[in-house]
Fold this sequence. Notes:
Keywords: Antiport, Ion transport, Membrane, Signal, Sodium, Sodium transport, Transmembrane, Transmembrane helix, Transport. Pfam families: CitMHS. Belongs to the NhaD Na(+)/H(+) (TC 2.A.62) antiporter family. This is Sodium:proton antiporter. With 484 residues, the protein is mainly α. The chain has a domain of 242 residues. A two-stranded antiparallel ribbon has the order 1-2. α2 packs antiparallel against α4 and α17 packs parallel to α19. It is globular, with a radius of gyration of 24 Å. The two termini are 36 Å apart. The N terminus is likely disordered.
Amino acid sequence: xxxxxxxxxxxxxxxxxxxxxxxxxxxxxxxxxxxxxxxxxxxxxxxxxxxxxxxxxxxxxxxxxxxxxxxxxxxxxxxxxxxxxxxxxxxxxxxxxxxxxxxxxxxxxxxxxxxxxxxxxxxxxxxxxxxxxxxxxxxxxxxxxxxxxxxxxxxxxxxxxxxxxxxxxxxxxxxxxxxxxxxxxxxxxxxxxxxxxxxxxxxxxxxxxxxxxxxxxxxxxxxxxxxxxxxxxxxxxxxxxxxxxxxxxxxxxxxxxxxxxxxxxxxxxxxxxxxxxxxxxxxxxxxxxxxxxxxxxxxxxxxxxxxxxxxxxxxxxxxxxxxxxxxxxxxxxxxxxxxxxxxxxxxxxxxxxxxxxxxxxxxxxxxxxxxxxxxxxxxxxxxxxxxxxxxxxxxxxxxxxxxxxxxxxxxxxxxxxxxxxxxxxxxxxxxxxxxxxxxxxxxxxxxxxxxxxxxxxxxxxxxxxxxxxxxxxxxxxxxxxxxx
Length: 484
């Protein structure tokens, strides 16, 4: 419901002060039209708002969020192209659609390869091995709090936030079954660290991928945000440290023996990321081209494993688990998915989320082509200072998906320096930590640690998290002053 209020407020900000619709012509050629006061504009805006509301109520209606967004994108571009056809020329509108489609395809291919590798590593039980290794160290609650926080901070820079958050969440739930206070605080810490870690790397999340994909910031420019993001994580963690129990949990340990090829898949994933960066920086090709090259490496490696092993590919991979009597305490799942089939890994992607982003990107691109985003840009970056605008947009990411917001700003094309783009990347990345529902890791952990980590338990620490938010912004202005 908070996301709904924020969205309606945004629409309310949008409608006043929009320019009078004009049809500009230059001879027989039709130039881009201002449709903000045309029936196609009002229709498209209403459709997009309705679709977003339907997506927000996914849990209530059980209607997958991709369905209304896909329909909205189709209706919006149908209205736009139809209007241009009535003016005698639809080439500009079709070209705009293709441009938005290209941006989405590059994003889709990048995420597809990344998640395929993560699914492959999951089947090889690499994440389970890391989880069991942490549990077996018999650390105190406070030590686990900091170790899980730092680990997820760095892991989330290359692994999607939901996967990284759930991995560390499994650790804290396993060791903290007798200490709900530890589980609650550790989950809050994981959400903050995950969002902060994903903000200083172009591989850390959808919003940073958008900025890198659009060529606004180069790959290594994102790392200027490392110190601000670290501060964002450390400030609330330091305060929460004193609320943690001081004793040690008691739990039986387990051991996992990784199957053949597991370490080489980790190596190939690193090579794939390097190819993506290299293709972008040296060949000036989309990063997705390097990722697809890396996917071919995984396919050839699976072919090699298929031909050189006696284990049938349809059966679980050769995995041995040695555990104590209480192995169930650390929640090691059954291994039944493992196979040497890349397309099986691709089939397990979060297609609902990927198709939701198609609808969001194409719908927002359509509203931008109509002229609405220029009006918002004029208000945010014309009447307000860029710094204040970026800070407010970052705060709104606690209610609205940060990837959607970032794509909207990129579509606005505000004329701001690199320091402001870094600020926007920072605020949109860490702003989602303010509420439990503000990011995918928070939503995922509420389900994983049900009854222990809740919306209200996270809300109690919102002032401290907000302190970290503004501390990170202050540090960014200090250490990256030459970027403004």
